[in-house]
């Protein structure tokens, strides 16, 4: 017997066949290792390549079926035909030529000529070999196993189910988006008002339906965002897939199907079960089986005609199958394969290479123009402390001067400096007080919520006198009154009947219909002498009362003639006890209460009362009568004491109210007081921390890294590039940390392995009907025997959905893992996510899916160790029907889901009830950032399959083109109408160049896979040419892309620059702790006070005014640019050019962490029609040093709020007061002093 190596080598060759009865059967695997074969291997192999060859008769008789057939034939007619065989000699005789018919995909019979060979083995042995007829029923069953195109089998049902799900669900999602797009402009068109007017979209129906028209040009002088650059990558994907799809549908599909017998005629019968479906009959497998039909198939079955001396045998000899190597089913099969290879070479590879090279050149020119012209050739990098321990304890100015002296002098004659530093900023350690800013944000939000509820507690209602009055607690019972004097001043102001100028409104308090009860401690009801109630109607000290109509009238009782006890009380006395806003503490605590004490010489009417916080002169309790009257000041009760009582007015008069049962307005205002006080305190603490940190920077202590801006800064040793070149792109918390990129790639690798193992059983379901697969996995036997709808769903739709969901989960986890990478650039983080997603999809959805499906398909041949390579290649083609089902499911749904944004839409509706302030609404409707990993996801999948499988199964072109077109429609709409670039507004197309290069390398997949499949069929010439084409494609792509337009490299720098950088590296790595004894460079002189002050001032290393870095972004931070954020509403016109609370000018040229330069937050109040918000804003700014703004006035009528026509026409805007008159009006309308 041969060695294992010999049997393995022979197992790769074609099968040998022998004749048993009227059937041509395959040799058993163990025969190839027996001595009778190995002794004469060359002779057997040579003859087997031409015709069937029979083993010795002693071997044939070991086959039970053949032994029975021989025995029956010998006993029935032992003299008719005897074939003797020995192991010594063999003789082969050609008998006749016959014509057979076979089916085509159109059901037309075609005639094919075959040469029939009958083998007789003559030997000294006289053992008879008889050829008897086989079972006709078994033959018919085997012939009808496989399906032809057009048959409704499990593959057809699977495609129908997938198409139905995609159409129904996809149309629902697209329809829902079309409905919500106009109803929710904040969700689906925020760029129409969120960005500057010159960047707003002008999308028309034509550009929406034809998204490849009028794209932003890469040759434009204006910078392009990452989304606009991605549009060109999307369009290139559509072009590449479109070229391959047209060739597959118009060229490969006719060559595969026209005049070619279907698989039921050429494929081998499946003796262990299984079958090929109707969709597989439209693949390349149909042409390959026509080139090399199975000898057991119906097409190769012919009737033999024996010579005259063997006519008795001819009468009993039925059909037999001929060797596939004798002749193909159609004579043009090999020519068709060559034509397909030519189409691949001339149009698919060459045409795709043209698209790739042209787009790469455009991106390369744009990168050069962007870096040199738009960025001025400057880089923005971060140097962490662990990369430069020698720079420890060095100030910014000193380190900047050292770098400029070491690197600035390194120049070449008449050339530009290769390394020139223009700015350096030290990054301090701010983690110790970073939580203060988070706490301030929470307090700010709580204060704005409380203010919004307070403002919404009052509203204007029309009165009978054609005016309006301020009422409290809209929606509450009208009997409830504000009795704690916490309402705005207008609530308590009595009207004189005059209207407010300009608005036609007056604020009145409803006059009670019944006389209020007298306070037992006072006999007087005092009024404000300046009020309209007093005007020339009553004398000072005159008794008054309230009549039955609720009006104040003189009291005619006899007591009114008594001497006026208040006649000696001047107006100044009243004013001296009137509380003002200045009575309140700066931290928002309760105001001081003044309590008049009893006089020793008072009359029976002596009383005491408390002055209510925030009351006016008309609200004061009566004062003690008599010359010895005096007023003492009593400290307010502690807010921590819950048992302390305070005097609050009830029914218009002072009463005692416990803290255990405060009024609703009092509870609300307590929150305002506490939040306001805490916000003021946090502002002071943060300002102190900022000042102390800048002092540390001036001394060079407690530094974690440096930001360096300059030409060639990327070449500084240990530099981490800020790809976005913006402040928002820097991840300040990661400065000084290890990046952990290796851990990220390990996670992605483990995730890919887990995903690969997870989809293996689902791929097994997709090949459940593969020949012999269910024989070794009995669980799949019911599916293998069924052709109904349930079998199609189980083998097609269900596993496809499972694979889609598993892959989507893996992509989301990859995105999550990328956020854990501690790099200093957000753009770099997103690039890592995209690259990991690219490789994950390439490995799992293409390489792993095709490989596993092919191996599962070839289980039978692998077990039998016969023609394993051929069946593995057939399995790769068979797996394309499952890819077709996957693409049907995602072609319509994925673009629709990308447009609908279900997660953001869900958050939008869930947070709708919790949104009460303008800032919360701004954050809820803020546009999302553009994410290339999700935007290009369908394009990556389409390119992978278009460059590998589309010529194996041309029908893939239909869902591929549909998905690419709809994805381009969705992508362009999202980029131009929804997404903004939060971190890198205008970035270098580095990632675009990377993607285009990988697309070019993927062009070689199609000829590579095509060549391997042909080699598995032993088509050496065509297969070798196809593999050579794949290699040439790779070399051309490499030479015409990154080798033609190389990126800047360190080794290309001049030798003097490289030497200076080497010296700088040694200086950076020097441990400053061991070099304290060495003399340091000069320190800043103390002779100039201005120099000493400059060291303590933040931003003294400010970048030059003409420096283009850092680049601007479209993102608006509402904590910094609050006033600008207030104008991002669809109902407002273009925003003003200048904002009063915008610190942008003061921060220009500074690159520090946000904790260092964060300004005081601006309170953002919601505008109301009653003017309460403006009163609160004036109060906050004047008495609490908290800058406020009020939401700009609406420009269109809202039915949910009352707004008079005159106010709507004027559309008043809130800003800083422009005149003293306006300031006076605001102060007059401010709430009562608390």
Written description of the protein model:
The protein has 1234 residues and is of the alpha+beta class. Among the domains are: 17-62, no CATH class; 154-184 and 226-293 and 326-371 and 736-1018, no CATH class; 1123-1190, no CATH class. Helices cover 45% and strands 8% of the residues. A four-stranded antiparallel beta sheet has the order 8-17-7-18. It has a two-stranded antiparallel ribbon with strand order 1-2. Strand 1 (17-20) and strand 2 (23-26) form a beta hairpin. Helix 15 (333-374) packs antiparallel against helix 34, helix 27 packs across helix 35 and helix 42 (1172-1183) crosses helix 44.
Explain briefly what this protein structure is.
The chain has 1234 residues and is of the alpha+beta class.
Write down the overall geometry.
elongated
What is the number of helices? 44
Radius of gyration: 45 Å
Number of strands: 20
Low-confidence stretches: 1-13, 78-144, 300-326, 474-480, 494-523, 530-535, 559-661, 1075-1093, 1196-1234
| Strand numbers in spatial order across the main sheet | 8-17-7-18
Largest sheet: 4 strands, antiparallel
Helix content: 40-55%
Mean pLDDT: 75
Distance between the termini: 108 Å
Fraction of residues in β-strands: 5-15%
What attributes characterize this protein structure?
two-stranded antiparallel sheet, four-stranded antiparallel beta sheet, 1234 residues, alpha+beta, disordered C terminus, 8% strand, disordered N terminus
